[in-house]
Specification:
Residues 400-420 are annotated as: Disordered. Helices cover 29% and strands 19% of the residues. It is α/β, with parallel strands linked by helices. The radius of gyration is 24 Å and the shape is globular.
Length: 460
């Protein structure tokens, strides 16, 4: 039925670093983390909920938790990092390197004692708190050489113990969970230096552990219908992409490390000849990656030239297919969200592109760092959107038919250069209002209501 339409349909696609979830990062007020040296920052909950982060990390710079608590903190999220370097799921099952190391069992006990009562400064609730767990590196690594067990069967024992801790957190009010898989530690110098036979033996153990973790999360989610979010983030593709493309991402060495740096350096740019600067290494020491890896490496930001080039390739090939240029935006309120805006003759034409071999190749390239969060085919003439648009406001209203109208005037009195509206042709209950601005000066409206997104143009 679209063949006779005069309007060209606007395609609005949202790309994000995480899958769609009920608790969005922009709404997360508290983050509680559990794990080992890949996660810990030295925070000591026994010193009080408002005690400082001493920055005792294994990454020689901000690790992933500190990055979420600072660089990517868009909601004033307060972090409680209960992780402990060297941790395993349960010290009674896999002893850590020191008896003072707090296992996940111990970390959950700390949460129950200090945070479950929701004291002043930690008045979290089930609907605004994310519980993140990255554990298993030491469980797999420490038990790797044991000859009195069958590792995959033993991992089932570990998963059962982990489940008891998840059940405990659920009973205490946790409803949103993020799990991270064990990265490819078979590619860490600790195991590479032991030879190819050791690496070949370890690799399937990692695969099995991660498969059991994913299955455990699914069972946990099925068991507790009140769970809002249970995401498993696979770290393996991210690590492997960086390791496989070392030159592209600026790593001078991905199989070893510089001994002068292995215990940390005075700064993130320290250089001790003959070694390259510390930030150019993947591994700080035999097992721990540097801070550049923890923040998914700087090149994965929208300003990175390699990422820009890849999106330009997408734009060129899709434009050849569709006859419409692609424009790119990021969400000013939630920088993790990246938008592709373009035109199509109709939604069927777009679906043919999605299924094409060319598009699938691009999805493979971007797979380790981006997931498609959603898309909408809006009945708006894409050609009417000014080519010099630098800001795009998008308001979505659900309920069928036209809604309450466009957003109000911008904070600084600017008027939009264009306004348009249309229905989602795939879901007629959704109606969209769009406003274009041609000179970016920050968010045009600080009081954007629910359902309104402020998008900033990139790659113009």
């Amino acid at each position: 039925m679209f063949a006779n339409r005069a309007l060209k349909h606007l395609f609005l696609c949202s790309l994000t670093a995480f899958s769609s979830a009920k608790l969005a990062w922009k709404d997360t007020k508290f983050l509680v983390t559990f794990g080992d040296s890949y996660t810990t920052d030295g925070f000591n909950i026994t010193a009080g909920v408002n005690s400082s982060d001493p920055g005792f990390v294994s990454s020689n710079g901000p690790n992933w938790v500190e990055a979420l608590g600072s660089t990517y903190n868009v909601a004033g999220t307060k972090v409680f990092n209960l992780a402990s370097g060297g941790a395993t799921i349960d010290a009674a099952l896999v002893p850590p390197y020191l008896p003072t190391v707090l296992s996940v069992v111990d970390q959950v006990a700390q949460f129950k004692r200090f945070l479950a009562p929701k004291p002043a400064g930690a008045q979290w609730s089930s609907d605004d708190t994310l519980f993140a767990i990255w554990i298993g590196i030491n469980d797999v690594g420490n038990s790797f050489g044991w000859t009195n067990i069958t590792q995959p069967q033993f991992y089932s024992v570990l998963m059962n113990r982990l489940t008891t801790q998840l059940d405990e957190l659920y009973d205490l009010g946790a409803r949103s969970f993020l799990f991270l898989t064990v990265p490819p530690t078979d590619r860490a110098p600790l195991f590479l230096q032991q030879g190819p036979a050791v690496v070949a033996k370890l690799r399937p153990f990692l695969v099995n552990y991660n498969a059991q973790l994913t299955s455990t999360v699914k069972k946990f989610e099925s068991k507790h219908r009140g769970i809002e979010t249970a995401i498993v983030f696979d770290t393996q593709p991210v690590f492997n992409t960086l390791l496989d493309n070392a030159n592209t991402f600026g790593f001078v060495n991905v199989t070893g490390w510089c001994e002068a740096y292995e215990n940390g350096t005075p700064s993130q740019t320290t250089q001790t000849p003959p070694c390259a600067p510390v930030s150019n290494y993947f591994w700080l020491n035999s097992l721990h990656p540097l801070f550049t890896v923890h923040k998914l490496k700087e090149p994965f930001t929208i300003e990175n030239e390699t990422l820009h080039a890849n999106f330009q390739s997408v734009a060129e090939r899709q434009a050849e297919w569709s006859g419409y240029p692609l424009t790119f935006y990021y969400n000013f309120q939630d920088p993790c969200l990246f938008y592709v805006v373009s035109g199509w003759e109709d939604s069927e034409a777009h679906r043919k592109w999605i299924a094409s071999d060319t598009n699938q190749q691009f999805l493979h390239i971007f797979g380790p760092i981006l997931t498609v969060d959603g898309l909408a085919h809006i009945d708006i003439d894409f050609n009417q959107i000014p080519s010099n648009t630098s800001e795009l406001l998008v308001r979505k209203e659900t309920g069928g038919g036209e809604g309450t109208g466009f957003v109000q005037e911008s904070d600084d009195g600017r008027q939009p250069s264009w306004r348009g509206h249309g229905v989602d042709v795939d879901n007629t209950n959704d109606f969209y209002y769009l406003e274009a601005y041609d000179d970016f000066k920050g968010p045009v409206m600080s009081k954007a209501g629910e359902g309104t997104y402020v998008l900033k143009r990139v790659y113009a």
